[in-house]
Amino acid sequence: MAGLGGIAAVGKSIEMLLNACFEEHPPAPNKKTRALLVRTSDFEESTRAGAIGSPALTVFLYRVDFNKTMRAAWSATSGQDGRSHLGLDLHYLITPWGTDAEEEHRILGGAMQCLETTPILSGPLLHSSGAFDAGESVQLLLEEISTEAVMHMFDSLPIDYRLSVPYIARVLRLDGRVAAPEGPVVSAVIGATPTATI
Questions:
Q1: Are 165 and 142 in contact (CB under 8 A)?
Q2: Is residue 87 a contact partner of residue 172, using CB atoms and an 8 Å limit?
Q3: Is residue 196 assigned to a domain?
Q4: Among 72, 119, 136, 144, which residue has the least CB neighbours within 10 Å?
């Protein structure tokens, strides 16, 4: 069961996986490429101070949504075990940063090859901060959204459009804290007259 750190742990898991792949097969020749989690303000800083740098690949969580397939099933489970179970889909945008177009294309190709080769995060591939159960896993797959939708995202970001690919991580299950134990069950009979047995 992932706790409150589950969302952050999935992002760190993706970052960790990509950095391991870049270490084994560097996409930019004779350079160290790094993957890093970013937020909106990091894009703004990158245009002024080179906060992201290059070569690099940014992993940007732009949306969190409940998983429509598992919502009803886990709601029923919550009614039985007294704990909340929230299934989430995490929507990411991966963006390469390089000194030229060829380098950015190589970085993006290396990232997509890595995520296609290892599309399931489980066991040691899941960051320990998420407190995942032994059998839990998260699937990474390309998200099916239009180019216009991706470009529209950049309208709300402090940088111009850059080549980017959307991915979705599903299903992250956030479990609530342990429910309070119920009190002992007591039966009482009121107004009954005891009868003697012989």
A1: yes
A2: yes
A3: no
A4: 144
Count other C-beta atoms under 10 Å from residue 152's C-beta.
Answer: 12
Q: What is the pLDDT along the chain (198 residues), one digit of tens a residue?
A: 567 788 999 999 999 999 999 999 999 988 999 999 999 888 876 554 457 888 999 999 999 998 877 655 555 555 555 566 688 999 999 999 999 999 999 999 999 999 999 999 999 999 988 878 888 899 999 998 888 888 888 888 888 888 999 999 998 887 766 654 555 656 666 666 666 655
Element holding 42 (H helix, E strand): helix 40-49
Q: What is the DSSP string of 20-39?
A: HHHHHS-SSTTS--EEEEE-
b/e per residue 113-127 (b: at least 16 CB within 10 A): ebbeeeeebeeeebb
Q: Domain span at residue 131? A: 6-175
Asked if the structure places residue 117 within a domain, the reply is yes
194 assigned to some structural domain: no
Which residues neighbour 178 within 8 Å (Cβ) at sequence distance 6 or greater? Answer: 83
- Give the pair of three-digit tokens for residue 62: 């732009």
